[in-house]
Amino acid sequence: MIEVRDLVKTFRLTRRQRREEGWPKDVREIRAVEGVSFTCRPGRIFTLLGPNGAGKTTVLRIIATLMEPDSGSISVCGFDTVEQPGNVRARIGFLTGSTRLYDRLTVSELIRYYADLHGMEADHYRKRRDELFDMLDMHEIAGRRIGKLSTGMKQKVSIVRTVIHDPEVMIFDEPTVGLDVITSRSIIELIHSCKERGRTVIFSTHIMSEVSRLSDDLAILHRGRLLYNDTYESFTGGMKTPSVEEEFVRVLVGEVEE
Amino acid sequence: MLVVLPMLMFPVLIGLTSSFIASHEARAHERTMTVAVFMQGNRPGFADFLEGSESVQILPVEDLDEARELVRSDSLDAVIVFEEDFDRVVRDLGTGGVELCIKLTEDSEIERGRLLDALSAYGDTLREERFRSLDLEVSVCQVLEVDTVNMATVRERFADVAGGILPYMFVIFCFMGAMYPAIDLAAGEKERGTLETLLTSPVNRMQILVGKVGVVILTGITSAAVSFVGLYAGVRYMGSIPPELFHLLLSILRPGTVLFLLTLLLPLTVFFASLLLSLSFTARSYKEAQSKLGPLMPVIIIPAFIGMLPGIGFNALTAVIPVLNVTLATKQVIAGHADPLLIGLVYASLVLYAALGLFICSRVFSRESVIFGS
Is B73 in the same domain as B136? Predict the structure, then answer.
C-alpha cells in the first residue's frame, strides 16, 4: 500500500540549468509537484500517466526515498518515507527503462551483490535466484559478463536485480521506454505477475497502449498537478471522446485552457 | 593498471636509465676519436703525446679552415690549434693559447672531457719542464690548500635529495591511484544510473558513502604501497647503483621509514578521497569528472615539488600545508633528526584536513541537486 498526501516538491534552479534549459533569469525555482494525493492498493496496478516533464519521475523518486518532499507525506506499507526510509527501501523494487547495471560483473555476481545489499540469507537467496532464473530462462547467462549481453538480456538481469528480495511494492518508472517489443513484453508480464501475487504496483508511462492493458487505477499528472485520480474503469466510462488517447489529450488541453 | 603501473614503474625506470647511461658512457669512452692537430710551427710535442693514445686517431689535414668545416659536417670530432708562437710564450714563462674546436652537445661532453684531460696532462709535462729549468719544486706556487671536511652524514646528504623525491613520488602515485576510482564511483555511477539503484537499497546513504571513500582510500594507499615495492625491487635487483648509494637506499627503505610515510599518507589519502569524490559527484558524466579533477594534479604536484627544493624550512607554517608537510616531514625522518612537535603538528593537521574533507563530501552526497542534477 502506498499513500501519498498533499505532496509538494520544488527544485531550485542552478545558474547552469537556467542557461542550458533556457529559463528566464528571474526564475529561481520550479514547482515540480504540487499538492498531489493518491493511494495505491495491493493487488492493483496504479498508473501514473502524464506527458514528459509532468513530474512523474519526481513523485516516484520521492516514494522510493531518493528525494524528500518539501511538504506532504508518503507512507509505504505503513512506513513514512522521511522518518523510516530504510524500512521503506527494504520493501520496494524500483525499475526503469534503462538497465543501470555494472558491465564488469557477471550476472550471478551482480544479483548476489544486490541480494547482499538487501541482507538476504544465503539459502533464501539461492532459492529465489533459481526461481527467477527459471522464470526468465537465464541459467545459461549466469556466468557471463553483463557488458557482453544484449539489451534484452540486460533488461532481464535488471528485472531480477529489482525483484530478488521479493518486494511488497513495485515501482516502474517508464519501464519500457526505448526497449524492443520482446523486452517490453517481458516487463509487461512482470507487472502482471506482481499484481497476481498481491503486490502493490505503481508505474508511470506516457504510452497509451500500456495504460489500456495494465491499469486498474489511473492518475493523470500534468505540470506537477493531479488532473485525474480514479479507477481506469471510471475514466473510460466517463470519456467524452472515442479513444483513451484523445480523452487524455482532452483532459490536458482543458487544463491548459483553464 | 593502478597496481601494475606503480609496481613496475621504478624497476623499469631504474633499470633502463642506469643501463642506458652506463652503455652510453662506455661507448663514449671506448670510441676512437678522430682529431686534427695544428701545431703551427711549434714543436710537435702534443701531437706526439696524442699519438700514444689508442683511442685517438690524428688525421692529417693540411688546411685549418677545411678542418673546421669537417668538424661542422661531423666528419671530424675535433680540431686542436696551438697559437703560432706557443713555444716562445711558454719558454718566456707566459701562458700559451690552445683552441679546441668541437661541436658541444650533451652527447659530446665525454669526448670533450677526454681531450681536455689530454691537454691538461700535456700542460702538466710542460709545467714540470718549466719548473725544472727554473730549478724549482712544483709545490712552490701552491701556498694554500683547503680541505673541506663534510660533517654531514651520508644519510643527511642523501635526505636532501631523495628525502624529497620519495614522498613526492608516493604522494603522486597515491593521488593518481585514488583519482580514477573516485571518478568511476561517483560520476561514473551517476552516468550509468547505478547510483540510483544503490540508493533504493536498504543500505543508508552514509554507509554507501563510507564504502566509496573506503575503496578510494584503499586504491590510493595500495598504489603508493606497490610503488614502494617497485622502488625496492628496482634498487635491489636492477641497475648499477654505486655501492655506497645502494646500501644507503636500502637503509632508507627500511620498514620504519616506509611505515612512517604510509602513516602520513593515510590521512592525506582520506583527504584526497573526500576531495576527489566531492568534485566527482558534482560532475554529470565520467568525462566531465575527468576534466574537473585533472587540474587538481598540479595543485598536488606543486607543494610536493616545493618540498624537494633546498632551503624550504620545516616549521609551524609549512607543517600544516598539506602535501608539502608530508615531503618535509619525510626528509627530516630520513635525515634522522625529526622534531617530534612538528611531526605531531603534521599528523594533527592531516587528520583535521581528512575530517574536513569527509564532512564536505557527506554534505555534497546528501544534496539531491548534486545526485540527481542534470
Answer: yes
| Predicted complex ipTM | 0.87
In this predicted model, which residue has the larger pLDDT, B165 or A191?
A191
Domain A2-76+200-257: homologous superfamily in CATH: P-loop containing nucleotide triphosphate hydrolases (3.40.50.300)
Which chain A residues are Cβ-neighbours of B373 within 8 angstroms?
Answer: 14, 17
Q: What is the domain count for chain B?
A: 2
Cα gap A59→A48, rounded to integer Å: 9
**Shortest Cα distance, chain A CAs vs residue B286, angstroms:** 15
Burial class (CB in 10 A: 0-12, 13-18, 19+), B8: middle
Q: In this complex, do A101 and B198 lie within 8 Å of one another by their Cβ atoms?
A: no
Mean pLDDT for the stretch of residues A184-199 = 87
Q: Determine the pLDDT at residue B7.
A: 66
Phi/psi region, residue A150 (left: phi>0; alpha: psi -120 to 50; beta: rest), is: beta
Q: Cell numbers of B29, please?
A: 669512452
In the block, cell 604501497 appears at B225
For residue A184, the model assigns a pLDDT of: 82
Do B331 and B276 lie in one domain? The reply is yes
User: Tens of pLDDT along B3-42?
Assistant: 666 666 666 766 776 677 777 777 777 788 889 989 888 8
Q: Which helix (H) or strand (E) holds B82?
A: strand B78-82
- Give kind and range of the element (H or E) at residue A96: strand A92-96
Find the CB nearest A119 among B194, B198, B202: B202
